[in-house]
Write a structure and sequence with these properties.
single chain; mainly beta; 2 helices; 4% helix
Length: 278
């Protein structure tokens, strides 16, 4: 991993955020020197494969894709550093990353687009602001967008996730892909879990993350929340994920994936997420 491929936001007090330009993947977020994100010890940093952990950026497709790589191409191409890390008047650190269509992206998805990804590192928060713009004069495109956040946890079996009671979800672990309704006031994980919760509220809290603390997720224009843990049997199927790492991570992903965003010529779409250590 060449040094030039990594951008570090440093707020002081051992609070940092590290972004790999491959996929504009946030690969580390430390608050008072405590890592909040999970990255597999077997993650591959070859500038080709998606990085297994952190916050992969999923666009323009969520899941398998007939035309190109699973979860789209944004997480496997090199992004541009639009604005290097800069300290704001508040003391927070901001950096801006961008991605536009290229020969590589047009080979699988023939649309012009502009993506802007703005990250702000606060004392105990990480803010992500995403803008998607359609510069075309004539073509409309549709897309999925999701932040595939891997949270680091001491034991996923002890985590509780709030804000999902009453929501409809698609269970991707069952073949028929049936829709169910969540009845639990908190969701816990004790087996292979792969669910797309629809029309979720703007906030979730995960308990028992690093050092037994809570993580608050606030989101805007992300109507879906994906919960994923491969558990033991599926961990073994991934060569870039350790067989015994599944208890130490949970993916709680803010996205727009149950239905696509449709973007008319000259129009834009914005979505955002705030992660806060409580």
């Amino acid at each position: 991993m060449a040094a030039t491929s990594v951008v570090v936001l440093d707020r002081g007090n051992n609070t940092t955020c590290t972004i790999n330009l491959h996929g504009a993947t946030v690969v580390s977020w430390r608050v008072n020197n405590q890592e909040q994100l999970f990255v597999s010890k077997q993650a591959v940093f070859d500038g080709k494969k998606a990085i297994r952990g952190g916050i992969p950026f999923v666009f323009p497709q969520f899941g398998p894709w007939n035309f190109g790589p699973q979860h789209g191409f944004a997480r496997i191409v090199r992004w541009n550093l639009e604005k290097p890390p800069e300290r704001l008047a508040s003391g927070d650190i901001e950096a801006i990353f961008s991605l536009i269509d290229s020969d590589f992206t047009r080979a699988v998805w023939s649309y012009p687009f502009q993506l802007t990804y703005r990250l702000i590192l606060r004392e105990k928060e990480l803010h992500s602001n995403i803008a998607v713009y359609n510069p075309s004069k004539e073509s409309t495109f549709s897309f999925n967008l999701l932040l595939h956040t891997y949270f680091k946890v001491p034991d996923v079996r002890r985590c509780q996730i709030t804000g999902l009671q009453g929501c409809t979800y698609l269970d991707k672990t069952s073949n028929e892909g049936a829709l169910y309704q969540e009845t639990r006031d908190v969701v816990t994980i004790g087996e292979w879990t792969d669910r797309i919760y629809q029309n979720t509220p703007h906030e979730h809290i995960i308990t028992n993350v690093v050092s037994g603390r809570k993580m608050r997720i606030q989101k805007c224009n992300f109507p879906d929340t994906v919960i994923w843990n491969p558990w033991v049997e599926h961990a073994k199927e991934m060569n870039d994920f350790g067989d015994d790492e599944y208890p130490n991570m949970v993916c709680v992903e803010s996205g727009h994936v149950s239905s696509p965003v449709i973007l008319l010529p000259g129009m834009g779409f914005e979505a955002s997420q705030i992660l806060q250590v409580m």
